[in-house]
Design brief:
With about 300 residues, this protein is mainly alpha-helical. The protein folds into 3 domains: about 100 residues, Up-down Bundle (Four Helix Bundle (Hemerythrin (Met), subunit A)), CATH 1.20.120; about 60 residues, Winged helix-like DNA-binding domain superfamily/Winged helix DNA-binding domain (Arc Repressor Mutant, subunit A); about 60 residues, Arc Repressor Mutant, subunit A, CATH 1.10.10.10. It is built from 13 helices and no strands. Helix 5 packs across helix 6, helix 8 crosses helix 9 and helix 12 crosses helix 13. It starts with a helix and ends with a helix. One of its GO terms (biological process) is DNA-templated transcription initiation. One of its GO terms (molecular function) is DNA binding.
Amino acid sequence: MSTELDSSKVLTLTPVPVVPVPTQTTAPTAPESAEPTPPPMPVTTGALDTRTLSRSLFLRLRALDAEGAAADSPERTYVRDTLIELNLPLVRYAAARFRSRNEPMEDIVQVGTIGLIKAIDRFDCERGVEFPTFAMPTVVGEIKRFFRDTSWSVRVPRRLQELRLALTKAGDELAQKLDRSPTVAELAAVLGVSEEDVVDGLAVGNAYTASSLDSPSPEDDGGEGSLADRLGYEDTALEGVEYRESLKPLLAKLPPRERQIIMLRFFANMTQSQIGEEVGISQMHVSRLLTRTLAQLRDGLISD
Protein backbone atom coordinates (compact mmCIF):
# COMPACT_ATOMS: atom_id res chain seq x y z
CA MET A 1 0.00 0.00 0.00
CA SER A 2 2.77 2.48 0.96
CA THR A 3 4.75 1.55 -2.12
CA GLU A 4 1.81 2.51 -4.35
CA LEU A 5 1.32 5.82 -2.61
CA ASP A 6 4.97 6.78 -2.95
CA SER A 7 5.07 5.82 -6.62
CA SER A 8 5.05 8.50 -9.28
CA LYS A 9 2.55 6.56 -11.34
CA VAL A 10 -0.89 8.16 -11.84
CA LEU A 11 -3.87 5.97 -11.11
CA THR A 12 -6.97 6.36 -13.23
CA LEU A 13 -10.18 5.88 -11.19
CA THR A 14 -13.42 4.87 -12.82
CA PRO A 15 -16.37 6.93 -11.49
CA VAL A 16 -18.95 4.87 -9.64
CA PRO A 17 -22.53 6.08 -9.40
CA VAL A 18 -23.28 7.28 -5.92
CA VAL A 19 -26.36 5.62 -4.50
CA PRO A 20 -27.98 7.72 -1.76
CA VAL A 21 -28.43 5.94 1.53
CA PRO A 22 -32.08 6.15 2.61
CA THR A 23 -32.60 7.73 6.00
CA GLN A 24 -35.95 5.95 6.50
CA THR A 25 -36.99 2.38 6.06
CA THR A 26 -37.95 1.96 2.40
CA ALA A 27 -38.47 -0.90 0.06
CA PRO A 28 -35.31 -1.95 -1.75
CA THR A 29 -35.02 -0.59 -5.25
CA ALA A 30 -34.23 -2.73 -8.23
CA PRO A 31 -30.84 -2.25 -9.84
CA GLU A 32 -30.76 0.10 -12.79
CA SER A 33 -30.93 -1.53 -16.18
CA ALA A 34 -28.38 -0.92 -18.84
CA GLU A 35 -31.19 -0.22 -21.35
CA PRO A 36 -32.06 3.41 -22.24
CA THR A 37 -34.55 5.10 -19.92
CA PRO A 38 -38.04 5.28 -21.54
CA PRO A 39 -39.67 8.71 -21.97
CA PRO A 40 -41.78 9.88 -19.02
CA MET A 41 -45.49 9.12 -19.02
CA PRO A 42 -47.94 12.00 -19.52
CA VAL A 43 -48.60 13.91 -16.33
CA THR A 44 -52.04 13.25 -14.88
CA THR A 45 -54.18 15.60 -12.84
CA GLY A 46 -53.44 13.59 -9.76
CA ALA A 47 -49.69 14.07 -10.10
CA LEU A 48 -49.56 17.86 -9.93
CA ASP A 49 -51.61 20.63 -8.49
CA THR A 50 -54.37 21.68 -10.89
CA ARG A 51 -53.18 25.26 -11.13
CA THR A 52 -49.57 24.25 -11.74
CA LEU A 53 -50.58 21.86 -14.49
CA SER A 54 -52.92 24.43 -16.02
CA ARG A 55 -50.12 26.98 -16.15
CA SER A 56 -47.83 24.47 -17.86
CA LEU A 57 -50.51 23.73 -20.43
CA PHE A 58 -51.17 27.42 -21.04
CA LEU A 59 -47.45 27.99 -21.59
CA ARG A 60 -47.41 25.14 -24.08
CA LEU A 61 -50.50 26.52 -25.81
CA ARG A 62 -48.83 29.91 -26.10
CA ALA A 63 -45.67 28.32 -27.50
CA LEU A 64 -47.71 26.45 -30.12
CA ASP A 65 -49.40 29.68 -31.16
CA ALA A 66 -46.01 31.39 -31.40
CA GLU A 67 -44.77 28.57 -33.61
CA GLY A 68 -47.74 29.13 -35.91
CA ALA A 69 -49.47 25.85 -35.14
CA ALA A 70 -52.85 25.45 -36.80
CA ALA A 71 -55.90 25.85 -34.58
CA ASP A 72 -56.96 22.28 -35.34
CA SER A 73 -53.52 20.70 -35.03
CA PRO A 74 -53.55 17.48 -32.97
CA GLU A 75 -51.21 18.76 -30.25
CA ARG A 76 -52.97 22.10 -29.84
CA THR A 77 -56.37 20.40 -29.75
CA TYR A 78 -55.10 17.97 -27.12
CA VAL A 79 -53.69 20.75 -24.92
CA ARG A 80 -56.87 22.84 -25.21
CA ASP A 81 -59.17 19.89 -24.50
CA THR A 82 -57.05 18.94 -21.50
CA LEU A 83 -57.38 22.47 -20.13
CA ILE A 84 -61.15 22.31 -20.54
CA GLU A 85 -61.43 18.97 -18.77
CA LEU A 86 -58.99 20.00 -16.07
CA ASN A 87 -61.01 23.11 -15.17
CA LEU A 88 -64.52 21.63 -15.37
CA PRO A 89 -64.76 21.61 -11.54
CA LEU A 90 -64.67 25.41 -11.78
CA VAL A 91 -67.78 25.30 -13.98
CA ARG A 92 -69.59 22.93 -11.62
CA TYR A 93 -68.78 25.21 -8.71
CA ALA A 94 -70.23 28.21 -10.55
CA ALA A 95 -73.28 26.25 -11.72
CA ALA A 96 -74.07 25.19 -8.14
CA ARG A 97 -74.96 28.80 -7.38
CA PHE A 98 -77.95 28.46 -9.71
CA ARG A 99 -79.25 25.10 -8.49
CA SER A 100 -82.48 26.71 -7.28
CA ARG A 101 -83.47 27.70 -10.82
CA ASN A 102 -85.94 25.57 -12.73
CA GLU A 103 -83.34 24.31 -15.17
CA PRO A 104 -81.53 20.94 -15.25
CA MET A 105 -78.06 21.18 -13.74
CA GLU A 106 -76.63 19.45 -16.83
CA ASP A 107 -77.84 22.32 -19.02
CA ILE A 108 -76.35 24.92 -16.68
CA VAL A 109 -72.99 23.11 -16.70
CA GLN A 110 -73.01 22.98 -20.50
CA VAL A 111 -73.64 26.72 -20.72
CA GLY A 112 -70.92 27.37 -18.15
CA THR A 113 -68.53 25.23 -20.18
CA ILE A 114 -69.03 27.60 -23.10
CA GLY A 115 -67.87 30.42 -20.84
CA LEU A 116 -64.90 28.30 -19.75
CA ILE A 117 -63.84 27.77 -23.37
CA LYS A 118 -64.09 31.50 -24.05
CA ALA A 119 -61.93 32.20 -20.99
CA ILE A 120 -59.31 29.64 -22.09
CA ASP A 121 -59.09 31.22 -25.54
CA ARG A 122 -58.60 34.71 -24.07
CA PHE A 123 -56.34 33.91 -21.11
CA ASP A 124 -52.76 35.22 -21.05
CA CYS A 125 -50.66 33.40 -18.47
CA GLU A 126 -47.98 36.12 -18.55
CA ARG A 127 -50.19 38.73 -16.89
CA GLY A 128 -49.74 37.21 -13.45
CA VAL A 129 -53.42 36.39 -12.86
CA GLU A 130 -54.53 32.94 -11.80
CA PHE A 131 -56.79 31.30 -14.35
CA PRO A 132 -59.70 30.58 -11.92
CA THR A 133 -59.76 34.27 -10.98
CA PHE A 134 -59.83 35.23 -14.65
CA ALA A 135 -62.34 32.60 -15.77
CA MET A 136 -64.99 32.80 -13.04
CA PRO A 137 -66.61 36.10 -14.21
CA THR A 138 -66.81 34.77 -17.77
CA VAL A 139 -68.37 31.46 -16.69
CA VAL A 140 -70.91 33.13 -14.37
CA GLY A 141 -71.71 35.77 -16.98
CA GLU A 142 -72.43 33.12 -19.59
CA ILE A 143 -74.81 31.33 -17.20
CA LYS A 144 -76.59 34.58 -16.28
CA ARG A 145 -76.98 35.44 -19.95
CA PHE A 146 -78.54 32.02 -20.52
CA PHE A 147 -81.16 32.63 -17.83
CA ARG A 148 -81.80 36.15 -19.04
CA ASP A 149 -82.39 35.04 -22.62
CA THR A 150 -84.29 31.78 -22.05
CA SER A 151 -86.00 31.84 -18.67
CA TRP A 152 -88.60 34.47 -19.57
CA SER A 153 -91.77 32.96 -21.03
CA VAL A 154 -92.37 36.16 -23.00
CA ARG A 155 -89.39 38.02 -24.45
CA VAL A 156 -89.06 41.45 -22.83
CA PRO A 157 -86.35 44.10 -23.30
CA ARG A 158 -83.23 43.73 -21.17
CA ARG A 159 -83.86 47.18 -19.68
CA LEU A 160 -87.15 46.01 -18.19
CA GLN A 161 -85.59 42.77 -16.97
CA GLU A 162 -82.92 44.70 -15.08
CA LEU A 163 -85.52 47.19 -13.83
CA ARG A 164 -87.62 44.35 -12.45
CA LEU A 165 -84.64 43.03 -10.48
CA ALA A 166 -83.92 46.51 -9.13
CA LEU A 167 -87.58 46.95 -8.16
CA THR A 168 -87.59 43.63 -6.32
CA LYS A 169 -84.52 44.58 -4.31
CA ALA A 170 -85.71 48.13 -3.60
CA GLY A 171 -89.19 46.89 -2.70
CA ASP A 172 -87.83 44.48 -0.09
CA GLU A 173 -85.60 47.15 1.46
CA LEU A 174 -88.40 49.74 1.60
CA ALA A 175 -90.87 47.22 3.02
CA GLN A 176 -88.51 46.50 5.92
CA LYS A 177 -87.83 50.19 6.47
CA LEU A 178 -91.44 51.41 6.22
CA ASP A 179 -93.07 48.30 7.68
CA ARG A 180 -95.49 48.31 4.72
CA SER A 181 -95.49 47.83 0.98
CA PRO A 182 -93.91 50.80 -0.82
CA THR A 183 -95.93 52.87 -3.24
CA VAL A 184 -95.10 53.38 -6.90
CA ALA A 185 -93.98 56.94 -6.18
CA GLU A 186 -91.62 55.78 -3.41
CA LEU A 187 -90.06 53.14 -5.65
CA ALA A 188 -89.63 55.68 -8.45
CA ALA A 189 -87.92 58.12 -6.07
CA VAL A 190 -85.47 55.50 -4.79
CA LEU A 191 -84.50 54.21 -8.25
CA GLY A 192 -84.56 57.59 -9.96
CA VAL A 193 -87.04 56.54 -12.66
CA SER A 194 -90.51 57.67 -13.63
CA GLU A 195 -93.64 56.17 -12.15
CA GLU A 196 -94.57 54.86 -15.61
CA ASP A 197 -91.29 52.92 -15.72
CA VAL A 198 -92.04 51.44 -12.29
CA VAL A 199 -95.45 50.28 -13.47
CA ASP A 200 -93.90 48.71 -16.58
CA GLY A 201 -91.19 47.04 -14.50
CA LEU A 202 -93.74 45.54 -12.12
CA ALA A 203 -95.91 44.37 -15.01
CA VAL A 204 -93.13 42.42 -16.75
CA GLY A 205 -93.00 40.08 -13.76
CA ASN A 206 -96.09 38.41 -15.22
CA ALA A 207 -94.06 37.45 -18.29
CA TYR A 208 -91.42 35.50 -16.35
CA THR A 209 -93.40 32.28 -15.97
CA ALA A 210 -96.30 30.73 -17.85
CA SER A 211 -98.70 27.92 -17.06
CA SER A 212 -99.74 25.22 -19.48
CA LEU A 213 -103.42 25.00 -20.38
CA ASP A 214 -103.18 21.29 -19.60
CA SER A 215 -101.97 21.87 -16.04
CA PRO A 216 -104.45 21.07 -13.22
CA SER A 217 -106.65 23.86 -11.93
CA PRO A 218 -105.54 25.51 -8.68
CA GLU A 219 -106.80 23.87 -5.52
CA ASP A 220 -108.53 27.07 -4.40
CA ASP A 221 -110.66 26.84 -7.56
CA GLY A 222 -111.75 23.30 -6.84
CA GLY A 223 -108.73 21.55 -8.31
CA GLU A 224 -110.82 19.64 -10.87
CA GLY A 225 -109.99 19.49 -14.56
CA SER A 226 -107.41 21.60 -16.34
CA LEU A 227 -107.16 25.30 -17.08
CA ALA A 228 -108.32 24.62 -20.64
CA ASP A 229 -111.56 23.14 -19.27
CA ARG A 230 -112.32 26.44 -17.57
CA LEU A 231 -112.03 28.54 -20.73
CA GLY A 232 -115.22 29.75 -22.34
CA TYR A 233 -116.34 28.78 -25.82
CA GLU A 234 -115.56 30.93 -28.83
CA ASP A 235 -118.30 33.49 -29.39
CA THR A 236 -118.45 34.09 -33.14
CA ALA A 237 -120.69 37.13 -32.62
CA LEU A 238 -117.76 38.99 -31.09
CA GLU A 239 -116.07 39.10 -34.48
CA GLY A 240 -118.81 41.38 -35.80
CA VAL A 241 -118.68 43.89 -32.95
CA GLU A 242 -115.84 45.89 -34.46
CA TYR A 243 -117.49 45.98 -37.87
CA ARG A 244 -120.82 47.11 -36.41
CA GLU A 245 -119.16 49.90 -34.48
CA SER A 246 -117.41 51.02 -37.66
CA LEU A 247 -120.65 50.93 -39.63
CA LYS A 248 -122.69 53.02 -37.20
CA PRO A 249 -121.52 56.45 -38.43
CA LEU A 250 -121.78 55.29 -42.07
CA LEU A 251 -125.35 54.04 -41.58
CA ALA A 252 -126.30 57.32 -39.96
CA LYS A 253 -125.29 59.17 -43.16
CA LEU A 254 -127.53 57.05 -45.43
CA PRO A 255 -130.89 58.28 -46.68
CA PRO A 256 -133.80 56.98 -44.54
CA ARG A 257 -135.07 54.50 -47.16
CA GLU A 258 -131.65 52.95 -47.85
CA ARG A 259 -130.93 52.74 -44.12
CA GLN A 260 -134.29 51.02 -43.55
CA ILE A 261 -133.58 48.49 -46.30
CA ILE A 262 -130.17 47.65 -44.78
CA MET A 263 -131.69 47.23 -41.31
CA LEU A 264 -134.50 45.00 -42.58
CA ARG A 265 -132.16 42.85 -44.67
CA PHE A 266 -129.28 42.28 -42.25
CA PHE A 267 -130.80 42.85 -38.81
CA ALA A 268 -134.37 41.60 -39.33
CA ASN A 269 -133.28 38.86 -41.79
CA MET A 270 -136.09 39.69 -44.24
CA THR A 271 -135.99 38.63 -47.89
CA GLN A 272 -135.94 41.15 -50.71
CA SER A 273 -139.58 40.40 -51.50
CA GLN A 274 -140.59 40.99 -47.88
CA ILE A 275 -138.60 44.23 -47.82
CA GLY A 276 -140.32 45.36 -51.04
CA GLU A 277 -143.73 44.78 -49.49
CA GLU A 278 -142.66 46.60 -46.30
CA VAL A 279 -141.21 49.63 -48.10
CA GLY A 280 -143.68 49.64 -50.99
CA ILE A 281 -141.33 49.02 -53.90
CA SER A 282 -140.57 46.09 -56.18
CA GLN A 283 -138.15 43.30 -55.32
CA MET A 284 -135.98 44.33 -58.30
CA HIS A 285 -135.75 47.89 -57.00
CA VAL A 286 -134.80 46.57 -53.54
CA SER A 287 -131.97 44.54 -55.13
CA ARG A 288 -130.58 47.59 -56.96
CA LEU A 289 -130.74 49.74 -53.81
CA LEU A 290 -129.00 47.04 -51.74
CA THR A 291 -126.19 46.69 -54.27
CA ARG A 292 -125.61 50.44 -54.47
CA THR A 293 -125.83 50.99 -50.69
CA LEU A 294 -123.47 48.09 -49.84
CA ALA A 295 -120.89 49.44 -52.30
CA GLN A 296 -121.18 52.85 -50.66
CA LEU A 297 -120.67 51.35 -47.19
CA ARG A 298 -117.71 49.28 -48.41
CA ASP A 299 -116.00 52.36 -49.83
CA GLY A 300 -116.59 54.19 -46.56
CA LEU A 301 -114.95 51.41 -44.52
CA ILE A 302 -111.93 51.27 -46.83
CA SER A 303 -111.42 55.03 -46.80
CA ASP A 304 -111.54 55.09 -42.98
